Amino acid sequence: MEARLTEQTDTPPLRDDVVADFAPELAPGGKPDEHLRDSVEAQALYDRAVREATTDERDAVVHFLRAAKLADAAREWYLAALALRAAGDIFRSPAPPYDLERALRMYLRAAAAFEACGHFDDARDLSYLVMKLRMWRGAELGVSVPKRAELFLFWAVAGFGLRPLRVLGTAAATIIGFALLFWATDGVRASSGTLANDPTDVLYFSGVTFSTVGYGDLIPAPHMRLAAMAEAVLGAFTIGLFVVVLANRLRR
């Protein structure tokens, strides 16, 4: 079972050194505070699930779910998140008790718990994983083909709204792609009307068109005006998208 959990390379390995936030350090033979008993019990269930993860996955997932529910009631968000993520990994692994749809629900609950305790990077990583699974394994999950195509485009352009550097990569690819198009079609003119087909000229023209700056020193040839307009529209959209994705990334 432990090998199965570690095979999920897109989630961190199972942790066996977690201490509940409200679990007191007790002297030998000491009794836990009644007000903290639920935290102590949640940690005990989690520790038991970790031990059983090496032998019996069915028992382990039951105890992970029990630990997650008790930890949630005790407001032990981090412990709940780890237990839910571990349960999701078990449900996602090929052997029984395989249930991909349930695994995604576990991951979404874990993401919410990670956010509640301030682990925003872990929450984003799980949200990203859920979207990726819906994209690549959508047929199994009943996701329609148009929706999967939309998810693929969203992933390729912006990393599901969580990868601002991917938006910059999209912008760079668009600028270079249009520059090649203008170069291949003699599509750039100087303001005097003479051909400006040097690679640096077309790259510069593509960049200022994409950014909607348009200094006027270079202009599109008549047969490439629609292409230049299309690039300007894409540029305005991509710049706005970058601002939104960056704000989403820095929100927490």
Which helices and strands, and how do they pair?
Blueprint: H1 2-6, H2 37-52, H3 57-73, H4 77-92, H5 100-116, H6 120-136, H7 138-141, H8 145-158, H9 164-184, E1 188-190, H10 199-210, E2 218-220, H11 225-250
Helix pairs in contact: 2-3, 3-4, 4-5, 5-6, 6-8, 9-10, 9-11
Brief summary of the model shown:
The protein is mostly helical and 252 residues long. It contains eleven helices and two strands; from the N terminus they run αααααααααβαβα.
Q: Would you give an account of this structure?
A:
The structure is a single chain. By secondary structure, the protein is mainly α. It has 2 domains: 2-132, Serine Threonine Protein Phosphatase 5, Tetratricopeptide repeat (Alpha Horseshoe), CATH 1.25.40; 163-250, Helix Hairpins. The protein has 11 helices and 2 strands, in the order αααααααααβαβα. A two-stranded antiparallel sheet has the order 1-2.
